[in-house]
Amino acid sequence: MEQQLYGLIGFPAMHSKSPRMHNAAMKKLKINAKYQAFEFSPDQLSSEVERLKNMNIRGFNVTMPFKNRIIDYLDGIDEVANKLQSVNTVQNVNGKWIGHSTDGSGFWKTIHSNPKTVALIGSGGAARSILASKPDDVTVHVFNHRSARFEQHSKEIKKLMNIELEDLADIRTILPKTDLVINATNVGMRDDASVLDEADFELMNGGSAVDIIYRDQPTEFLRRAAAVGLQTKNGLDMLVSQGALSFEIWFNQKAPIELMNKVVKK
């Protein structure tokens, strides 16, 4: 039987721990498949999609900046992905590409502090997934920089969850009531930038900070949060949790999540 191909598309993507995680899981369950990263710039999306189809890829994950853009190339999307207009998992079903979103449910499975008031920074695909999957007893305030896309994102967030998108410049008004703050932007992925400073985190009087970015060293966002005593978590737990859900969509069997966790954190 020919080895099946799975993968990840993104820009950047070559830094990803997903190949290591999924290849270990496939090997453990004796699945004849391999998983690899495909990194390309946004202007190459059409040609790369065509290449993946020619390679008969059986499934792939989608990361920034393609979670919304990939939808135009799919044959169908599930209810959650349609609501979010964001896809992070694509499944090849008899030659048809079907999109799913596991980001949000994957994220909340990793949060064990029972937060009641959350400040979510970002309004892209990952942020919307987290917002739409929130527990019913959690209040989420969504913030972003007032950019050219702010008004459009505001309308989309309002339609999605009937929540107002707030200007990041106003976040200090909510931080004293906040017990979890989440960075769901890509700020800090490649440099030492942070959407908040230590004085912002001090307003929380304790609590937790989560950055969905993961890298070998803590992001500046997490460094500043830790400096004032907040509990911190990077995006690795979310990566494993949403990755396990993707794995189960592709192979219709339970993912070896303990192994996946071990592999990405060693």
TrEMBL record:
Top-level taxonomy:
Bacteria, Bacillati, Bacillota, Bacilli, Lactobacillales
What does the entry list as the binding residues for shikimate?
S16, K17, S18, T63, N88, D103, Y214, Q242
- Supply the Gene3D superfamilies for this chain: Leucine Dehydrogenase, chain A, domain 1, NAD(P)-binding Rossmann-like Domain
Q: Which residues form the active site?
A: K67
Q: Name one Pfam family in it.
A: Shikimate_dh_N
GO-annotated biological processes: amino acid biosynthetic process; aromatic amino acid family biosynthetic process; chorismate biosynthetic process; shikimate metabolic process
What binding partners and quaternary form does the record give?
A: Homodimer.
EC numbers: 1.1.1.25
Its recorded name reads: Shikimate dehydrogenase (NADP(+))
Top EC category? oxidoreductase
Which reaction(s) does its UniProt entry say it catalyses? shikimate + NADP(+) = 3-dehydroshikimate + NADPH + H(+)
- GO cellular component terms attached to this protein's record: cytosol
Pathway, per UniProt?
Metabolic intermediate biosynthesis; chorismate biosynthesis; chorismate from D-erythrose 4-phosphate and phosphoenolpyruvate: step 4/7
* Biological function: Involved in the biosynthesis of the chorismate, which leads to the biosynthesis of aromatic amino acids. Catalyzes the reversible NADPH linked reduction of 3-dehydroshikimate (DHSA) to yield shikimate (SA).
